[in-house]
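Hi F.,

I've been meaning to write this up properly since the lab meeting, where we talked about keeping a consistent format for the predictions we share between groups. The idea is simple: the sequence comes first, exactly as it goes in, then the structure tokens exactly as they come out, then a line or two of notes. No screenshots and no reformatting. I'm using this chain as the first example so we have something concrete to point to.
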Amino acid sequence: MDKIINAVETNYKKEDIPEIRPGDTVRVNVKVVEGEGERKRERIQPFEGLVIKIRGAGLGRSFTVRKMGADKVGVERIFPFHSPSISSIEVLKKGKVRRAKLYYLRDVKGKIRIKERKD
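Output, unedited:
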């Protein structure tokens, strides 16, 4: 059964995904469709923030990015790694953290400082 699932999944897997870990600051360029019918337009909208968790495996693997929006309101968004709506992922900073899930950052007020990873 695993061989069949792997054969189907290979058609949908992306190969150009960078290595991402929790604590990294990333910019995810998302394809956004606006309008309907003839007025349908597609544009790319960047979402820049901190990776707070990675979960799953295979095609179901996803990561959560948190950014500070207007008026210091935290905005979290979950992205599947192999989603066709993601045009590209850029790693801006590599963070050094000691946790796999950075949920504690939701309660932190003010600026978050994370040490930079050297590798």
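Notes:
The radius of gyration is 16 Å.
The CA atoms of residues 33 and 39 lie 10 Å apart.

If this format works for you, I'll send the rest the same way.

G.
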